[in-house]
Structure formats: C-alpha cells, structure tokens
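>> received
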Amino acid sequence: MRKLRILCLWALLLAYGAAEAQQYQVGVCDWMILKRQKLGEFELARYIGADGVELDMGSLGQRKEFDNQLRNPAQAALFKHTADSLDIKIGAVAMSGMYAQSLAGRDNYRELVEDCLNTMDVMGGVRVAFLPLGGCGNNWADSLPLRKVIVKRLHEVGEMAKARGKVLGIDTPLDAKGNKKLLKEIKSDGIAIFYKFQTAIELGLDICKDMQALGAKNICAIHASNTDGVWIQNDKALNMPAIKATLDKMQWSGWLFIERSRDVNQVRNVKNNYGSNVRYMKEIFNSVPEPEVKLNADGRDPEYVNNILGRAKKCTDALDLTWSSAIGDNVRNIVANRYFELNDIYAERDSLKKAGNKNASQVADSKLYRSHFGFEEKLSKYLMPRHVERVKDVMTFNVVKVTYDAYCDMIPTLKDDEKEQIMRWLREARELAIDEESSNKKHAVFNKYKGRINNFLSARGYNVQKEREEWEKRVKARGGRL
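>> returned
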C-alpha cells in the first residue's frame, strides 16, 4: 500500500511538473511592425506588451545574401544589449526574404542558412528559425522533381541546424497529414513545422484538429494570426480559447508570434493593431502578469481613489499604455501612489502644525525629497527616460511645453541658447511643481519662473511687454486666442 501511495505521489509530481513547464510567450514579427532589424523594435515590442520579437534576417530580393547588419559584431552586441536591457526576448530568427525566393532556385541556400544560424548564436543562442517555402510556389509539393530537390535541401540545412542545437521551422501549403509525410521524407530532427494559422484557414482546415493530428513534437513555433482584416479578437475564423485548450491538451509550449491580423482601416497603426492583438492573446493564454506595484488604496475614500486613478490614467493614456497591463497598470499605480503619498505628507504636515510642532514644514520637506526621487526611480523600472519626462509633464498640466511654445511663438527671433535657457528653467520649475499639494500652487511655481524668464529676456534686450502685445495681435489675426 505504501508503495502504491509513493507511485501515485510521483505521478502527481510529474503531472504538476509538466503543467508548470507548459508556457506560452507572445511575440511580434519585426518586419510586420515596420522595424525590420531596427534597434527600435525592442522598445516598441516592450511598449505593446509583447514578450519578445521574431527578428528578421533582412531583405533578400536579388541580393546574393540577406541584408543582415548583424554580421557586424558591434551591431549585434548593441542589438543584444538593447533587447536584454528592455527584457525583450528574441524568440526566433526569420528568413522572411524566402517568402519570395525559391529554396530550389538558390544555389547558395547553405550559405543563407549558415548566416541565419550564426545570427541566432550571436543574438543569444536562439533555438528556432523561420524558413518559409512560399517562394517555391503553391504546387511544389505535387511536382515530384521539384519536391525531391526541396526535400534534399531541407535535409541538408536541417542537419546543419541540428548539429548546432537548433530547429528550422518551415511554413508549407500542406495539412497535418501532408506535413507529417514531408517531415518523414526530409529525415532530419533539425526541421519542424512553423505552424501558421493563416495557412490553415486558407486551406479550409479546422486549426484545432489539424494541430492535434500534426502533434506537438512537430510544431516548433506558431504564427498565431490571420491575414489582415480585423484584429484577432474580432476574427470569427480564430477561436483562440478553443485553440488554447487544444494546445493545453497537446502539452505544447512555445512562442506565439503575431504576424498580421491588422485592422484594414488602420493598417499602418502599429501600436493599435499589435497592441490590441498582443493584449488579447496574453489574456487568452494567461500570460498577463498581475501588477507588481500594488495600489495603496486601503483605508481611503473610494470616490477619492477613483478620482486619483482618473488622473493617473491620463499619464498612461499619453503613453499609449492603456492596453498593456504588464506596464500600464504598474505605471498607473506608481502615479496614483505618488498622489496618495503627497496627500499623506501634506496631511501630516497640517496635523503637526495644528498640534504646534514648529518643525512640521521641515518634516514634510524631508519626506518630499525622498518621495520625489523615489517616484522617478520607480517609473524608470518600466519606462524610458523620455517617457518618464512625459509623465511629469502630464502631472504638471503640460505647462512646460505650452509655455515654451508660447515664448518661441511670441518672440520668433529667440536665439538657440536663449531657447535652451528657457527650457532649462521650465523643467526646473516642473521638478518643484510636481511636489506641490494643489494645482494652484503648481501654477504658482511656474509663474515664478516665468518672471525669471522675462527678466532674463529683458536683460538680453527684448521688450517683453511689446513682444507680448504684438503676439496677441498675431494670434487674434489667425483666429486663435490666448
């Protein structure tokens, strides 16, 4: 009996381990987010909430080799460092140039694959590559001579990949039965299917049944989108909850890359298209983490909390982060907590003053100092420096930009060094204003600095009063108002 209990326990532990090991990661294809081998792809991927990217080898066309800048060790190191610093993984490397090039028609096919395998190594040991066979035509699988050439070459490059611990994922115009037959002909563990929902839909296949028939071990990664038309969540051909249940049952783990599924009415709006698709996919596949930063709302009036959350939401809206729980919720909570903290500091100051404590203001100033720099440090964990600046601007009613633009419009002859000084003072004012307890006191800080700017300009020979009067006339003449 004891032996039976031990065996049952081991069975449960193994099952638990398998469930724990199964995970999904959601990525985007860099050539489809208009960032093919551009350093900005990592920041954009982070912005839209993706776990990683499918990094392309560069265009091919009539070139002999991919337009691959990552052969340059310094450039590759910069790409890898940027991806790591933003916590964006490189889930796969793609040879998308082969969408329009025939594997059978390229005499240097081995060199092209070797270049890809080298890139996978320098980018951190990426395991999966994407090799589309679209350039071979739609009927290559039915043409015995052409099929033999393609099978032979896939075996060769598959063995190259296998020798380096990698897999080349191919995209074919075949169903599960056809793909299994093809893999059997290729005879290489270095070749698997890079499953593509769009292809299955175009073939009229049931995605869930086709994937089950193909088997988890034959799928190295998935292009989890359809052709352009509507977002994934609005696509009746993509039943993601059912697909997720199927992959769970298959115990498949790996990358789900969003290639298309763009809204045709805003096809070049990368943030909206891919942000919405990523968000939906992560909700379905349970990979949206709970916010790391907790909202310090306990014991506070619910109406007050909602009001503060509304203010904080203006910051995430300004950063297009409303769809990204992974970043947006944390930023929102950091901003809201900052408002709560300021309220608590000033409430304590007033209470100390009321009790006759002469050091009340000094106590508040000390806490404000720590709070000020702590706030920026917390934001910096999730945002780039310029985005931290944007949050500060929103929290101070965008007075920096409005005032700076007004001075430049009022006095068109301002010199560059004068503009720099104006901006420097306005940013200094913002650092003070963001700690103030009310909107009136925030504006009072800026007004003080506007006086300093006016004195500076007067010392530079400008008649600020006259410049303002002339500016008011110009603004009214063009139908505006101050």
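>> The longest helix spans residues 325-354.
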